[in-house]
Amino acid sequence: MGHQISSLVFNGLTENQFNALMTEAHNQGLAISGYTGSTETHGVEVGWLYDSLKQVLTLNILNTPFFISEETVSNKLDKLVQGVLASTPKDSV
To answer: Residue 82 class from Cβ within 10 Å (0-12 exposed, 13-18 middle, 19+ buried)?
Structure first.
């Protein structure tokens, strides 16, 4: 069992992009819903807080199993968010 290992902060994430992120995260097995919470899959526990007024998303790695490094989880989360940012317009059309 682990502890909070690291935080990732993403600035300028619009509500439209956050909604797209929730959908894509769900498609990848990570059940993110609402502006705050935590979810666990395969022993990886992630918490999140989205501030829609400031357009800031904070992801916290809360726990990882011994066989998955924090760096691997951090890289996958970053890739997920960056992919959504690159493919989703800031505002809904």
So the answer is: exposed
Residue recorded with tokens 């940012």:
85
pLDDT value for 92: 62
> Which residue shows structure tokens 């999140």?
48
Q: How far is the C-alpha of 30 from the C-alpha of 28, rounded, in Å? A: 6
Output the six-digit token pair for 62: 């809360």
In this prediction, residue 1 carries a pLDDT of 46
Cβ neighbours of residue 71 closer than 8 Å, sequence gap 6 or more: none
Q: DSSP 3-state assignment of 66? A: coil
From CA 77, how far away is CA 54, in angstroms rounded? 20
pTM of the model: 0.88
The 3-state DSSP class for residue 68 equals: coil
At 4 the three-state DSSP class reads: coil
